[in-house]
Amino acid sequence: MNSTDLVSIKRTVTTAILVDGGFYRRRAVFYQGYISPEERVEELISHCRSLLNADKFEQRNLYRIFYYDCPPIDKNVYHPLLNKSINLGNSNDYKWQKKFLETLKSKRKVALRLGRLSENDSTYLLKPDVQKKLIRGAISINDLTERDFALNITQKGVDMKIGVDITTLSVKKQVDQIILISGDSDFVPAAKQARREGIDFLLNPLGASIKKDLYEHIDGLINYIPQKYTNKSEHTDETDEQKLTT
Fold it and tell me: What domains, with CATH codes, occur in the chain?
């Protein structure tokens, strides 16, 4: 058996892909801007398929795609600049998110894990860069526009659901490998549990920078961005050995 034969032999693994929905949507908008809900769903599914083919030494068979997010809320939220309440249910963001989740539900091998948005913590806040200009005196209150405010809503239950699923998949030996699409460090305790159970735990941050100390809690970094997003995308898996040399 020569080296060419060795490359052609792939290790077969069962892979679950977990998607931090809020994170994914922000990165997708960053790269490609706003598109229709149906197009964004197809984009996500296509990206997950690409992750399954990201390692030439492994045959990754999909167990399931787990998508974590919150359904939109339709409550009234007071806007300080406009001095009136805004009905979120009439917004384009509300309609987009509803259609996105409905479309995602219809896809095979996709499981939705929905938390909730905290209605009590919903408020419009000045964007950070606008606050700095206001404090410096670069602009005055009279210069503020509606675009200078952003809706701030706290998610409830999403991180917990991700942690529970990582633990369940690992302890019950339902998969050999977990790929998490996220850039958050909140998953670290669950990742450590998964690795203790012998699960290969990989992270795909979609080009976002992650804290250096996170490297010790994952088995590899899939530094893959869809080619249509950028001409500088990379398509590599880093093993523990590679991480020590980069």
Answer: 9-71+95-118+157-245 (3.40.50.1010)
